[in-house]
Amino acid sequence: MTTPRLKTSQPVRTAIFPVAGLGTRFLPATKATPKELLPVLDRPLLQFAIDEARAAGIERMIFVSHPSKSAIERYVHADEELSATLREKGKHQIADHLDDAAIDPEAEQAHFVMQPEPLGLGHAVLCAADEVLPGPVAVILPDDLIMGEPGCLSEMLDAYAEAGAGHMVATMEVARDEVSAYGVLDPLGDAEGQMVRASGMVEKPDAEKAPSLQAVVGRYVLDASIFDDLRNQEPGLGGEIQLTDAIAKGVERVGLCGFRFSGQRFDCGSKAGMLRATLAYAGMHEEFHPVLQTEAPLAMAAE
């Protein structure tokens, strides 16, 4: 199969953040706090995702949330009362930090839509369809934390116009015994720099049957036709609408490309991944080095 080579002239102006999940793996912490607001040290997972979108020049951020997770909307917007209280107490630096983290309504657009039932990632993306700006869209999964400069989405958007494919997915090489936990790219030949052209994806294949070791992780840049494909997508296992299936449906029309990002990815949907991310982030800040040096021998001794 030969995929089309498309020149994408429209910019990517919208990013969709699926944040409706209930975070059951982190209960009881997520009973009151959405998993996207769990901190890596003092920086919530969602803040990493927002800042990554900002750095990539995204104009509109659409948060696909759940009615029980109103804390996300409160977090995203500025808290003028809290900021004023901090300034009255002379804590201007902290107030400035909070103001910088919040959405600036004069420079940024934040839209919230609800996904009342957990009907799959594809359904979450489809919930945002009426709010997106014209052109391709990005999808960022906040619990897939990718640390690095430039950010993963910035790298992808820089490459997207020349990729020759309407759908681009972030990929990383994993060990063969790990491929069954991921969607895996089915490549068309060798990589071209950071890009891997593909004929499709295989969802969670058996290790011995996997077409490659290029695992798809939580960053997507998708042609606008993805919404029509999602509307026509039949529900799969558990009644869920899968984004992977809708991407596969459009491959022959718009093409598919994997992008091998340069940053380090942490699966913060798992406790082990969250711990790894916290340690890595602490290692980037000199003030925590004495703690890491002290605690590491104790941790090893306890094993």
TrEMBL record:
Residues forming coiled coils: none
Record field: catalytic activity: alpha-D-glucose 1-phosphate + UTP + H(+) = UDP-alpha-D-glucose + diphosphate
GO biological process: one example: UDP-alpha-D-glucose metabolic process
The enzyme's E.C. designation: 2.7.7.9
Nucleotidyl transferase domain: residues covered: 20-278
Keywords: Nucleotidyltransferase, Transferase
CDD domains: UGPase_prokaryotic (cd02541)
Any single Pfam family the record assigns to this protein: NTP_transferase
Top-rank EC class of the record's enzyme: transferase
Gene3D superfamilies attached to this UniProt entry: Spore Coat Polysaccharide Biosynthesis Protein SpsA, Chain A
GO molecular function: UTP:glucose-1-phosphate uridylyltransferase activity
UniProt xrefs under PANTHER family: UTP--GLUCOSE-1-PHOSPHATE URIDYLYLTRANSFERASE
Similarity comment: Belongs to the UDPGP type 2 family.
Protein name stated in the entry: UTP--glucose-1-phosphate uridylyltransferase
Organism: Salipiger abyssi
Lineage, top ranks: Bacteria, Pseudomonadati, Pseudomonadota, Alphaproteobacteria, Rhodobacterales
